[in-house]
Fold Zinc-ribbon domain-containing protein.
Amino acid sequence: MEWIIVLMLLGMLPAYIAMAKGYNFLLWWLYGTALFVFAIFHSLMLKPAEKNLLHYGRRYCPHCEKIIDYDATQCEFCGKDVTPLDRES
């Protein structure tokens, strides 16, 4: 019985990491409780949810997939030119 409680508490770790990146806490808690070893690595490898990027004025570079400013004209990571986006669109 104690191991179930431990698993439920451990499941909160990947759920919290995923929630910080903009994903559903409850679904990730269930996943983390059932498959903790996989869920913790999966949550660490997640990219931030698209809705969070747009909210904070960020987006992905179309060339290297790193996170850059919404109005950037050049990627700070790969150095390629990118088209700046209008925040209202």
Notes: The longest strand covers residues 58-60.
